[in-house]
Every structure is written in C-alpha cells, then in structure tokens.
Amino acid sequence: MRVLGIETSCDETAAAVVTEAGDVLSDVVRSQVALHAPYGGVVPEVAARDHARAIVPVIEEALRKAGLTAQDLDGVAVTVRPGLLGALLVGLSTAKGLAWAAGKPLVGVDHLVGHLMAVFLRREGVEARAPEFPFVALLVSGGHTALYRVDGPALGQIRELGATRDDAAGEAFDKVAKLLGLGYPGGPVVDRLAALGDASRAAEALPKPMARRDSLEFSFSGIKTAVARHVAQRAAQQGGPLEGQALHDLCAAFQGAVVDTLVRKTVRAARQEGVTRVVLGGGVAANRGLRARMTEECGRRGIEVFIPPFASCTDNAAMIAYAGALRLAAGERDDLDLAPATRTSLPRVTRKGGGAR
Amino acid sequence: MKILALSTSTPRGSVALLDVEHSDHGKHGERVLASMSYDDLHGHAERIISAIEETLAAAGATRADIQALACDIGPGSFTGVRVAVATVKGIALALATPAVGVISLEAMAAAAFASAAAPGDLVVPVIDAKKGELFLAVYDAPHAPPRVAPRHLARDEVPAALAALAEGARVVVVGVVAEELPALRPHLAQGPGLGLPDASWIGRLAAERLARGPSSREDLDAAAIEPLYVRAPDAKPAQPGYAPPR
C-alpha cells in the first residue's frame, strides 16, 4: 500500500509517500521559517498564503521522487488537526480534490498521532530501531509538550499522561531567544550557545519549572519570565544587553532547567506506567542537550530510549502518510466532508492555565 | 469541452459545469449544464466536494468528463478563496487538466454587462472586505481590462471615489454589501450573479480565457494559480527584544 501524506498544519508545507510498513518512498518538506522570522513567530495568514503557493510543487516532487502518479496511490492521508485552521484548510482542500478526482480513499490524521508514530518510519540508508508497544512518548515541539502512554497506533490506544499548562517547550526557547536578541527560531541557537556556557553560574536566577515530584504536567511560562527579569536586572546594573560568557551561561542554565524537567518527568512517567521504553518526538527532540540527558538518565534506569532521526522529529508528511496508511490498512476511511480542527482528538488530562504548581 | 467552475470567496459557495463549443472562426459558445450554490462561509471545505458531485449528477456527468477547471481567486475571504483554489489544484493534480483563475469582481462585472449594464456604463462590483472596507474594481466595458484594478477601500471613501470617476457616465454598482451603504443604494443593480460572485460566471470567463489558449508554458497550469488577496496579511514585524503577547 502506497499512501500520499500531506501536512500543512503550521509552518512547513510537506508531502511524502510511505507504505503501511513504514517505508519512506519520498519525503519533501518546504519550511517557511525564513518567512516568519521577521515576525518572531508564525503568522497564520502568512503561513496559509505560502502553503497555497507551495502545495502543488511539494506534492509533485513527492510523487516524482517516489516514481508514482496520483493514479498509483492507494490513498491520501492529510493532517486535519491540531493546527492553524487557515493553514490546515489548504492541505485538506488539496487532499480532498486530489482524492476525489483520482478516486482514492481519504483519511484525516491527527498531527500528534503522526508524531507519536514517526519512530516507526524506515528511511533508506538510516538504521531504524522501532520500539514495541507499549511505550511512553515525550512529544516536545514549538506547539506541543506532552507525555503519552502509547499502546498502539489507534486513537483509543494513546493516553495523555500530562501536558504543558501554558507555553510549549519550543515556544519557551523561541521567546527566550527573542528576549536575548538571538532571532527566530530559538531552539538551535540557544542549544549552540548553551554548549559554551556553565549552567551553575546562572542557575540561581531561574526556577525549576513545575518541579513538583508527583506531577506529569509542565509549565514553561515562569522560567521565561525569570529570564526576562534576569535580563532586565543585568541591563540595569551593567547598562547593556547580556553578551559573551554571561549570555552563554544563561542559555546553559535555561536549557538545563527545561531539559531537566522534560527528562525527570519522562522517567517518572515510564516508572509510573511500568514501561521500559521511551520515545522522543517533535522538533525539540533535535536538541542535543535533551538527547544526551535523556539517553543518560534512562540508561541508568534500564529504560530503552528511541530517538528518531531529525527528519522524523520535526514536522513532516511521512509520519502523516504512515499514520494514515495504518488507518487505511485497518479498513478506515473518511468522508469528503471532513472538517479541520484547532485541537487534537486525543483526550487531554491537563487543563490550560491555573492550579497548584 | 466541459469546464468545472468553483467559487468560495464569499459566504456563497457555488459550483457550475459548463459546456463550451469552439467554432472554426475562433468564436465560442458556452452553456451552463448545471449549477448549485449554498450559503455557508465557514463550511466551504466541508461542502465543496458534495456540491461538485451534486452538480455533476444534475448534468449527468462524471469526473472523467471534466476537461478544464476554473476557480474564483478573489478578492474575498482569504480563507474562503483558498478552499476553491486548493481544491482545484488537487483535482488538477489527478486529472492533469488545464485550470484558470478568475477574479471574483470581474465575474460580477461580466454578469452585470450581460444584464443590468451597457458598454459605457461604469460597473462597480463590490465585496465586503470586513474591517470597515470594501473590495472593489471599476469596469467600463465587458471583455476589457478594468478602469480601476481590484483594490480595498474604506467604506466611507467609496462614494467620493466613484463620483470622481463617473464624469457623467451611469454608475452601476453590484454586490449585496452595497445595500449597507446609503450613498451606493441608488446605483445598485440586482439580479442573478450580481449579489455575490457565482461559479457560472467564473466558468464563462474561464471559457474565454481557454479559447485564447496558453500564452506561456506556466499559463493554464493549476500550480501557478495564485489567490488575489489585494490586502496584505495583518501582521507587523517584531521589534528586537520585545516579545508580543500570543
């Protein structure tokens, strides 16, 4: 079975052809990151306009690289949620037109389910280790931060264990980078500068985000505020922005605090669920500090860690095609009146906003 | 040749299937075989495919009969416009048919010249642009470039702008939103295809365009169809060191 996946939920226009076994026949991602950089974040209308411009060339490239035409496909999978409505609508409308005209079945895919299944993708020339079910997954990106117990690929087999109450971890990286004048996106540059710094020299300025031992929920807005306060204080004392070693130290302390929280809670979740496999997913899984700490802490406790290659962690359509192929293989398909939604279809346990930290 | 035409730029969604006959003398005649419409600005993505199926069924046609595609490219609702544009792009990917984008306001003007206006009249199609503005254009003849290309204008500036252009010509305003502007109401013409852009007029203009043939390699390629937004996205570049609330 060869399934075309289409992804336009945020700021990547992506298309891929994948089999139900997870073999990636093609995987095309066109990032809009440079387009949004001047705004310091994703502008929904700017994103939707670029998707409309890029969608056909991206799909054509994915089909060409897979050596297929639309008629050769066994189905079309498309991200329907969660995401920016205007952006989702471009991919969904194109997918519907294509599926209808080619007479192929259409399946909608929850973007988060796609991320959770990305670990099963098999890319040519890349050694792939796939976990058995069940596993605990940390999904961490610019839009999402949550822990799941995953017993299988279907919606009913995935349970949220805890999620962020406010900002996503990647969002915190972006906001802190903006505060420090480091540009957008913030993750890669903070990660790079953190490697040059000493966290202990700035750690006292920052709180441990949602450190309560028994909670699997996250909160990253407090640490961002603490960084802002620290930057303002330094500016008042020294009459200038944070630079050089002091900047590196603060990046190291910030990244260290975020990574520490993510790793501790993931380990706690695995223990609580009695699961010995942990999977990382989402764009922040590219963070070197997180990969290293997670591997080290899990290794000490006999927990196996599965970190997909970078191309499978960031937003892509291969994971959507694969999750869709699993649905199609199970005999499912959606009607052509399928509607997009801003929220995930996975049941959520974490309430956004208040409550005891 | 059968053309499938879509319009989703306003709360009115519409689909039409047209049959175009070309004669040897470069003339062509087109006939609307079937059309349907609905009113649901936020439901275009849900309804457009079933509207297409309904239209084809009414004409006794199937998707295999479609030889060309046409879509309304706006101006209008940004999100709405993209539904028809993306749907047409998807269909063209599968059928490898030529596709034509048609300006919403031009389709309304063409409908006006076919019924309520004569050459020499100033036809002014208007579409609600929200934020206290209208999308409008000015045409003084059918099959001719606009006197004023599609643009957005504050509602209270529209009457003076039109008065300055008229120079004694009869002004014919079309578009339901004009009912909300007392100064425009005396000029307002009503009739089929005049209140909001309609797929049958999108299809007729596409037929003219197709009859002329491609003018370049990219022309008539669905991938190259761009919505005509007229208004820029509502976003300001961030100032360094300042984090706006999200």
Automatic annotation (TrEMBL), chain A:
Binds 1 Fe(2+) ion per subunit. GO terms for biological process: tRNA threonylcarbamoyladenosine modification. One of its GO terms (molecular function) is iron ion binding. Transmembrane segments: none annotated. Its EC number is 2.3.1.234. It is found in: Cytoplasm. InterPro entries: ATPase_NBD, Gcp-like_dom, KAE1/TsaD, TsaD. It comes from the Bacteria. One of its GO terms (cellular component) is cytoplasm. Keywords: Acyltransferase, Cytoplasm, Iron, Metal-binding, Transferase, tRNA processing. The keyword Acyltransferase applies. Its cofactor is Fe(2+). Signal peptide: none annotated. HAMAP family: TsaD. Required for the formation of a threonylcarbamoyl group on adenosine at position 37 (t(6)A37) in tRNAs that read codons beginning with adenine. Is involved in the transfer of the threonylcarbamoyl moiety of threonylcarbamoyl-AMP (TC-AMP) to the N6 group of A37, together with TsaE and TsaB. TsaD likely plays a direct catalytic role in this reaction. This is tRNA N6-adenosine threonylcarbamoyltransferase.
UniProtKB/TrEMBL annotation, chain B:
One of its GO terms (molecular function) is peptidase activity. InterPro entries: ATPase_NBD (IPR043129), Gcp-like_dom (IPR000905), T6A_TsaB (IPR022496). The keyword Phosphoprotein does not apply. Residues 43-139 form the Gcp-like domain. Keywords: Hydrolase, Protease. It comes from the Bacteria. One of its GO terms (cellular component) is cytosol. GO terms for biological process: proteolysis; tRNA threonylcarbamoyladenosine modification. PANTHER family: TRNA N6-ADENOSINE THREONYLCARBAMOYLTRANSFERASE (PTHR11735), TRNA THREONYLCARBAMOYLADENOSINE BIOSYNTHESIS PROTEIN TSAB (PTHR11735:SF11). This is Metal-dependent protease, putative molecular chaperone. It comes from Chondromyces apiculatus DSM 436.
